[in-house]
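Form 7-S
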Amino acid sequence: MTKNVVERIDDLVKIKTILVSVSDKSGLESFIPGLLGINPDITILSTGGTYSKIKEILGPDAEDNLKQVSDYTGQPETQGGLVKTLDFKIYLGLLTETYNPAHQDDLKRTHALPIDMVVVNLYPFTQTIAHENVIVENARGNIDIGGPTMIRAAAKNYIRVASVVDPKSYDGILDLLKAKAGSLGIEDRYSLASKAFEHTAQYDRAIADYLAGLSEKDVQSCYKTEG
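Output:
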């Protein structure tokens, strides 16, 4: 099988389109206006409760910069937000490479935007299982799928995309963007990718350890089984 080997990238990538979908919404009230203060033309794609929070933060200005992922993809969110971001246009926007003509043709064909930054943190799995008398179904419901997938896609494509997983990093990222005229450098994106993979690794480790510690009785006690 022929491997795609990237030989040319941009050091500085201007942040024009970001995707924001967070469980922990702390810090957004300063981060989002801060991003728009640096580049007023940023497009923000968002989902569910995060979309509502950003709309509240931006007020009347929201319609100029904020778009629901479901409107962008043309696919409504499923009941309970089960599927929101797992869409071809989203992952095309995250994984495409700037100097790959086939990728650029795919973006044009689908009218997809190259996504330059994801701001994602995950369902509170460890906080949920820390509660006294938590049941297996509560834990299962807090296993995030779309979040880790977006984080991993962005982190894999650090040659173009910034992956932001920690609200504590928002101020530092704004400082970098201010210093670099709204762009992030390869060293910035690489550092963020390393942190992102560590974040998802810890998340998956917590899930694996929890499931390994359950007994068959623990699992069966939560459900009525058929057949």
